Amino acid sequence: MTFPLFDLAGLMGFNMDIAYSDVSAKYFTRDMTFMANPVELARHSNFLFVTLAASTVSRHIDSKPVIEALGPEGVLINISRASNIDEDALLDALEP
Fold this sequence. Notes:
two-stranded parallel sheet; two-stranded parallel ribbon; about 25% helix; alpha/beta; 4 strands; Rossmann fold; disordered N terminus
């Protein structure tokens, strides 16, 4: 999962631990933690923001393993395209 890295100043002001996932670590993220894959990132997160472009590569990037790693108390915030979320896995996680 990625976050718009240029837009993080507001969250950093709350002393939040900010982590991100991408193809590789970015040089301009000195105060952020790079995590190699979305499952690892979700396991580390209380809030998971999805902000990447929709493509065949990103389709369902937030899959059942990611949603399970986020856990029942985690919050998934998708401001990208719906195709990046596995809706069936999300609905399964939301059912009691």
